[in-house]
Amino acid sequence: MRLKIRSALVAAATGALLAGGAAPVAMATVSASASGATVSDAHCDDGASAARVRNKKAKEPAQDPNAKAYGAIKAQPRMPNGSVTIPTVFHMIQPETAPPGYRSDAEWQTMIAAQMKVLNDSFAGATGGANTPFRFSLSSVEFVENDAWYQVVPGKGERDMKRALHTGDSETLNVYVADIGAGLLGWAYFPQGYNSGRAYIDGVVMLDESMPGGTAGTGAKYGLGDTLVHEVGHWLALHHTFNAGCSASNDFVTDTPKEAHPQFDCPPDSTDTCAAPGNDPIHNFMDYTQDSCMYLFTAGQAKRMNDAWINFRAIP
Ligand SMILES: [Ca+2]
Ligand SMILES: [Ca+2]
Ligand SMILES: [Zn+2]
Protein backbone atom coordinates (compact mmCIF):
# COMPACT_ATOMS: atom_id res chain seq x y z
CA MET A 1 0.00 0.00 0.00
CA ARG A 2 1.14 3.49 -0.72
CA LEU A 3 1.37 5.58 2.38
CA LYS A 4 1.15 9.25 1.74
CA ILE A 5 2.81 11.39 4.34
CA ARG A 6 2.89 15.13 4.14
CA SER A 7 5.31 16.34 6.71
CA ALA A 8 5.31 19.77 8.26
CA LEU A 9 8.38 20.17 10.37
CA VAL A 10 7.76 22.84 12.94
CA ALA A 11 10.71 24.59 14.50
CA ALA A 12 12.21 21.31 15.59
CA ALA A 13 15.48 22.82 16.69
CA THR A 14 14.14 25.68 18.75
CA GLY A 15 11.13 23.93 20.20
CA ALA A 16 9.03 27.01 19.53
CA LEU A 17 5.29 26.52 19.63
CA LEU A 18 3.46 26.61 16.35
CA ALA A 19 1.43 29.79 16.07
CA GLY A 20 -1.90 29.51 14.36
CA GLY A 21 -1.01 27.02 11.68
CA ALA A 22 1.35 29.41 9.95
CA ALA A 23 4.12 26.90 9.47
CA PRO A 24 5.25 26.07 5.96
CA VAL A 25 4.12 22.63 4.85
CA ALA A 26 6.66 20.53 3.04
CA MET A 27 5.09 17.94 0.76
CA ALA A 28 6.58 14.49 0.59
CA THR A 29 5.33 11.07 -0.40
CA VAL A 30 6.92 7.95 0.98
CA SER A 31 6.08 4.30 0.66
CA ALA A 32 5.74 2.00 3.57
CA SER A 33 5.10 -1.68 3.96
CA ALA A 34 1.81 -1.24 5.76
CA SER A 35 -0.28 -4.31 5.19
CA GLY A 36 -3.65 -2.64 4.96
CA ALA A 37 -4.89 -5.07 7.56
CA THR A 38 -8.23 -4.48 9.16
CA VAL A 39 -8.43 -2.92 12.56
CA SER A 40 -11.22 -5.15 13.74
CA ASP A 41 -9.18 -7.09 16.26
CA ALA A 42 -9.77 -4.66 19.07
CA HIS A 43 -8.13 -6.69 21.78
CA CYS A 44 -5.14 -5.06 23.37
CA ASP A 45 -2.34 -7.43 24.24
CA ASP A 46 -0.45 -4.95 26.35
CA GLY A 47 -1.83 -4.66 29.85
CA ALA A 48 -0.16 -1.31 30.29
CA SER A 49 -2.81 0.73 28.54
CA ALA A 50 -5.50 3.02 29.81
CA ALA A 51 -8.21 4.92 28.03
CA ARG A 52 -10.87 7.60 28.14
CA VAL A 53 -14.29 6.73 26.77
CA ARG A 54 -16.96 8.81 25.10
CA ASN A 55 -19.92 7.14 26.75
CA LYS A 56 -20.78 4.66 29.42
CA LYS A 57 -21.26 1.84 26.96
CA ALA A 58 -17.88 2.12 25.29
CA LYS A 59 -15.41 -0.57 26.18
CA GLU A 60 -11.90 0.27 27.22
CA PRO A 61 -9.12 -1.83 25.75
CA ALA A 62 -9.09 -5.16 27.53
CA GLN A 63 -6.29 -5.47 30.03
CA ASP A 64 -4.11 -8.51 30.22
CA PRO A 65 -4.81 -10.14 33.58
CA ASN A 66 -1.18 -11.29 33.68
CA ALA A 67 0.17 -7.81 33.23
CA LYS A 68 1.99 -6.22 36.10
CA ALA A 69 -0.12 -4.00 38.28
CA TYR A 70 1.65 -0.68 38.01
CA GLY A 71 1.01 0.55 41.52
CA ALA A 72 3.36 2.39 43.82
CA ILE A 73 6.34 4.12 42.24
CA LYS A 74 9.77 4.64 43.80
CA ALA A 75 9.98 8.19 45.20
CA GLN A 76 12.42 10.62 43.58
CA PRO A 77 13.43 14.24 44.20
CA ARG A 78 10.80 16.69 42.99
CA MET A 79 12.01 18.47 39.87
CA PRO A 80 11.24 22.21 39.64
CA ASN A 81 8.01 23.22 37.99
CA GLY A 82 8.43 23.69 34.27
CA SER A 83 11.90 22.15 34.24
CA VAL A 84 11.19 19.34 31.75
CA THR A 85 10.15 20.22 28.20
CA ILE A 86 8.83 17.24 26.28
CA PRO A 87 9.18 17.22 22.48
CA THR A 88 5.76 16.42 21.05
CA VAL A 89 5.13 14.85 17.65
CA PHE A 90 1.68 14.93 16.04
CA HIS A 91 0.70 12.24 13.51
CA MET A 92 -2.55 13.43 11.89
CA ILE A 93 -4.23 10.39 10.33
CA GLN A 94 -6.60 11.31 7.50
CA PRO A 95 -8.88 9.49 5.05
CA GLU A 96 -7.40 8.89 1.61
CA THR A 97 -10.36 10.72 0.06
CA ALA A 98 -11.62 13.59 2.17
CA PRO A 99 -15.39 13.42 2.72
CA PRO A 100 -17.45 16.60 2.24
CA GLY A 101 -16.85 19.02 5.08
CA TYR A 102 -13.57 17.44 6.15
CA ARG A 103 -11.32 20.02 7.77
CA SER A 104 -8.46 21.59 5.85
CA ASP A 105 -4.88 21.05 6.94
CA ALA A 106 -4.79 24.70 8.02
CA GLU A 107 -7.76 24.11 10.32
CA TRP A 108 -6.09 21.04 11.82
CA GLN A 109 -2.91 23.05 12.35
CA THR A 110 -4.88 25.70 14.22
CA MET A 111 -6.50 23.04 16.41
CA ILE A 112 -3.13 21.43 17.11
CA ALA A 113 -1.70 24.79 18.20
CA ALA A 114 -4.70 25.33 20.49
CA GLN A 115 -4.26 21.78 21.81
CA MET A 116 -0.65 22.47 22.73
CA LYS A 117 -1.77 25.53 24.70
CA VAL A 118 -4.40 23.50 26.60
CA LEU A 119 -1.78 20.85 27.36
CA ASN A 120 0.76 23.38 28.63
CA ASP A 121 -1.76 25.41 30.64
CA SER A 122 -3.07 22.24 32.27
CA PHE A 123 0.37 20.95 33.29
CA ALA A 124 1.34 24.43 34.51
CA GLY A 125 -1.61 24.57 36.89
CA ALA A 126 -2.96 27.57 34.98
CA THR A 127 -6.45 26.04 34.77
CA GLY A 128 -6.83 25.62 38.52
CA GLY A 129 -4.72 22.67 39.58
CA ALA A 130 -1.18 21.94 40.76
CA ASN A 131 1.84 23.01 38.76
CA THR A 132 4.05 20.20 37.44
CA PRO A 133 7.60 19.81 36.10
CA PHE A 134 6.26 19.27 32.59
CA ARG A 135 5.87 21.47 29.55
CA PHE A 136 5.40 20.41 25.93
CA SER A 137 6.94 21.72 22.73
CA LEU A 138 5.50 20.90 19.32
CA SER A 139 8.38 19.52 17.29
CA SER A 140 6.61 18.22 14.19
CA VAL A 141 3.25 17.61 12.54
CA GLU A 142 2.76 15.05 9.79
CA PHE A 143 -0.41 14.40 7.80
CA VAL A 144 -0.84 10.73 6.90
CA GLU A 145 -3.55 9.58 4.48
CA ASN A 146 -4.44 5.98 5.29
CA ASP A 147 -7.96 4.55 5.36
CA ALA A 148 -6.92 1.50 7.40
CA TRP A 149 -5.61 3.64 10.23
CA TYR A 150 -8.16 6.44 10.06
CA GLN A 151 -10.57 4.62 12.40
CA VAL A 152 -7.91 2.81 14.37
CA VAL A 153 -8.71 0.86 17.52
CA PRO A 154 -6.29 -0.89 19.88
CA GLY A 155 -4.78 -3.95 18.22
CA LYS A 156 -3.07 -4.95 15.01
CA GLY A 157 -3.96 -1.83 13.04
CA GLU A 158 -2.60 0.27 15.85
CA ARG A 159 0.65 -1.68 15.86
CA ASP A 160 1.03 -1.40 12.08
CA MET A 161 0.46 2.35 12.28
CA LYS A 162 2.89 2.88 15.11
CA ARG A 163 5.60 0.67 13.61
CA ALA A 164 5.48 2.91 10.55
CA LEU A 165 5.19 6.29 12.24
CA HIS A 166 6.58 6.23 15.78
CA THR A 167 9.55 8.52 16.24
CA GLY A 168 11.93 9.59 18.99
CA ASP A 169 12.69 7.92 22.30
CA SER A 170 11.25 7.48 25.79
CA GLU A 171 11.27 11.26 26.31
CA THR A 172 9.29 11.94 23.10
CA LEU A 173 5.50 12.24 23.20
CA ASN A 174 4.01 10.68 20.06
CA VAL A 175 0.39 11.76 19.51
CA TYR A 176 -1.70 9.92 16.89
CA VAL A 177 -4.84 11.81 15.94
CA ALA A 178 -7.61 10.05 14.02
CA ASP A 179 -11.34 9.34 13.87
CA ILE A 180 -10.73 6.50 16.31
CA GLY A 181 -13.31 3.79 16.80
CA ALA A 182 -14.89 1.78 19.61
CA GLY A 183 -16.43 4.82 21.33
CA LEU A 184 -13.03 5.83 22.62
CA LEU A 185 -11.77 9.35 23.07
CA GLY A 186 -8.22 8.13 23.41
CA TRP A 187 -5.83 5.64 24.89
CA ALA A 188 -2.23 5.61 26.06
CA TYR A 189 0.49 3.40 27.53
CA PHE A 190 2.06 3.64 30.94
CA PRO A 191 5.78 4.48 30.97
CA GLN A 192 6.77 1.30 32.82
CA GLY A 193 6.24 -0.59 29.58
CA TYR A 194 8.63 1.50 27.51
CA ASN A 195 11.48 -0.98 27.59
CA SER A 196 9.35 -4.03 27.02
CA GLY A 197 10.94 -4.49 23.59
CA ARG A 198 8.00 -2.81 21.91
CA ALA A 199 8.99 0.81 22.41
CA TYR A 200 7.19 1.77 19.21
CA ILE A 201 3.81 1.20 20.88
CA ASP A 202 4.47 4.08 23.30
CA GLY A 203 2.37 7.22 22.93
CA VAL A 204 -1.17 8.57 22.85
CA VAL A 205 -3.92 7.88 20.33
CA MET A 206 -6.84 10.32 20.41
CA LEU A 207 -10.00 11.37 18.59
CA ASP A 208 -9.37 14.19 16.13
CA GLU A 209 -12.52 16.09 17.08
CA SER A 210 -11.53 16.06 20.78
CA MET A 211 -9.05 18.84 20.07
CA PRO A 212 -10.06 22.40 21.00
CA GLY A 213 -12.87 23.58 18.74
CA GLY A 214 -13.80 20.00 17.89
CA THR A 215 -17.26 18.42 17.84
CA ALA A 216 -16.72 15.36 20.06
CA GLY A 217 -19.61 14.41 22.32
CA THR A 218 -23.14 15.72 22.64
CA GLY A 219 -22.89 19.50 22.63
CA ALA A 220 -19.15 19.12 21.94
CA LYS A 221 -18.69 18.30 25.61
CA TYR A 222 -15.40 16.57 24.79
CA GLY A 223 -14.23 19.29 22.40
CA LEU A 224 -12.05 21.45 24.65
CA GLY A 225 -8.83 19.45 24.42
CA ASP A 226 -8.79 17.70 27.78
CA THR A 227 -8.62 14.22 26.26
CA LEU A 228 -4.95 14.74 25.47
CA VAL A 229 -4.30 16.06 28.98
CA HIS A 230 -5.96 12.94 30.44
CA GLU A 231 -4.01 10.59 28.15
CA VAL A 232 -0.68 12.29 28.88
CA GLY A 233 -1.53 11.77 32.55
CA HIS A 234 -1.55 8.02 31.80
CA TRP A 235 1.62 8.39 29.71
CA LEU A 236 3.20 9.73 32.91
CA ALA A 237 1.84 6.83 35.01
CA LEU A 238 -1.36 8.30 36.45
CA HIS A 239 -4.24 5.91 36.98
CA HIS A 240 -7.88 6.94 36.81
CA THR A 241 -9.11 8.51 40.04
CA PHE A 242 -11.66 5.68 40.20
CA ASN A 243 -8.96 3.02 39.84
CA ALA A 244 -9.69 0.19 42.29
CA GLY A 245 -12.70 2.17 43.54
CA CYS A 246 -12.96 2.75 47.28
CA SER A 247 -10.10 0.34 48.06
CA ALA A 248 -7.10 1.34 50.14
CA SER A 249 -4.82 1.65 47.13
CA ASN A 250 -7.28 3.51 44.88
CA ASP A 251 -5.10 5.35 42.34
CA PHE A 252 -1.89 5.28 44.45
CA VAL A 253 -2.24 9.04 44.99
CA THR A 254 -3.23 10.13 48.49
CA ASP A 255 -4.63 13.59 47.75
CA THR A 256 -7.21 12.43 45.20
CA PRO A 257 -10.29 11.32 47.16
CA LYS A 258 -11.36 7.78 46.39
CA GLU A 259 -14.39 7.28 44.12
CA ALA A 260 -16.33 4.12 43.46
CA HIS A 261 -16.79 4.52 39.69
CA PRO A 262 -16.20 7.01 36.88
CA GLN A 263 -18.27 10.17 36.83
CA PHE A 264 -19.63 11.51 33.54
CA ASP A 265 -20.94 14.94 32.47
CA CYS A 266 -20.57 17.23 35.50
CA PRO A 267 -22.28 16.01 38.67
CA PRO A 268 -22.61 18.24 41.77
CA ASP A 269 -19.47 18.96 43.78
CA SER A 270 -21.15 17.16 46.68
CA THR A 271 -21.03 13.84 44.80
CA ASP A 272 -19.55 11.28 47.20
CA THR A 273 -19.40 7.56 46.36
CA CYS A 274 -16.85 6.33 48.94
CA ALA A 275 -17.04 6.61 52.72
CA ALA A 276 -13.38 7.69 52.81
CA PRO A 277 -12.87 11.44 53.38
CA GLY A 278 -13.48 13.86 50.54
CA ASN A 279 -16.03 14.22 47.76
CA ASP A 280 -15.41 12.53 44.43
CA PRO A 281 -12.64 14.26 42.43
CA ILE A 282 -14.98 15.20 39.58
CA HIS A 283 -12.79 18.12 38.49
CA ASN A 284 -9.71 15.96 38.16
CA PHE A 285 -8.28 15.32 34.67
CA MET A 286 -8.13 11.60 35.49
CA ASP A 287 -11.89 11.16 35.99
CA TYR A 288 -14.33 10.74 33.06
CA THR A 289 -16.28 13.99 33.41
CA GLN A 290 -16.80 16.34 30.46
CA ASP A 291 -14.07 18.75 29.44
CA SER A 292 -15.67 21.85 31.00
CA CYS A 293 -15.78 19.98 34.34
CA MET A 294 -12.20 18.65 34.48
CA TYR A 295 -9.40 21.13 34.99
CA LEU A 296 -6.91 20.00 37.60
CA PHE A 297 -4.14 17.67 38.64
CA THR A 298 -3.31 17.49 42.35
CA ALA A 299 0.11 17.98 43.94
CA GLY A 300 0.18 14.24 44.60
CA GLN A 301 -0.43 13.48 40.93
CA ALA A 302 2.29 15.95 39.95
CA LYS A 303 4.67 14.09 42.28
CA ARG A 304 3.71 10.69 40.85
CA MET A 305 4.34 11.95 37.31
CA ASN A 306 7.65 13.44 38.48
CA ASP A 307 8.70 10.09 39.94
CA ALA A 308 7.59 8.20 36.86
CA TRP A 309 9.57 10.48 34.58
CA ILE A 310 12.79 9.92 36.53
CA ASN A 311 12.23 6.19 36.99
CA PHE A 312 11.04 5.26 33.51
CA ARG A 313 11.41 8.00 30.89
CA ALA A 314 14.38 10.27 31.63
CA ILE A 315 17.48 9.37 29.63
CA PRO A 316 20.55 9.99 31.82
CA1 LIG B 1 -6.56 8.60 45.65
CA1 LIG C 1 -15.71 10.23 50.04
ZN1 LIG D 1 -8.08 7.09 30.94
Question: Could you please describe the fold and organization of this structure?
Answer:
This protein has 5 helices and 8 strands; from the N terminus they run ββββαβααβββαα. The protein has 316 residues and is α/β, with parallel strands linked by helices. Bound molecules: calcium ion (2 copies) and zinc ion. Residues 257, 272, 274, 276, 278-279 line the site of one calcium ion. Residues 250-251, 253, 256, 258 line the site of one calcium ion.
Write the layout of secondary structure elements.
Layout: E1 2-9, E2 30-31, E3 49-53, E4 84-94, H1 105-123, E5 134-145, H2 147-150, H3 156-165, E6 173-178, E7 184-189, E8 204-207, H4 226-235, H5 299-313
Parallel strand pairs: 4-5, 4-6, 6-8
Antiparallel strand pairs: 1-2, 1-5, 3-7, 7-8
Concise account of the structure shown:
The chain has helices spanning 105-123, 147-150, 156-165, 226-235, 299-313; strands at residues 2-9, 30-31, 49-53, 84-94, 134-145, 173-178, 184-189, 204-207. It is α/β, with parallel strands linked by helices and 316 residues long.
Got a strand count? Answer: 8
Termini Cα gap:
39 Å
List of distinct ligands in this structure: calcium ion, zinc ion
* Fraction in beta strands: 15-25%
What is the CA-based Rg, rounded? Answer: 18 Å
Low-confidence segments: 7-47, 59-67
Main beta-sheet annotation: 8 strands, mixed
Specify the helix fraction band.
10-25%
Strand order, sheet with most strands: 2-1-5-4-6-8-7-3
Give the count of helical stretches.
5
Structural class: alpha/beta
Shape: globular
Order of SSEs, N→C? EEEEHEHHEEEHH
Task: Report mean pLDDT, rounded to a whole number.
Answer: 83
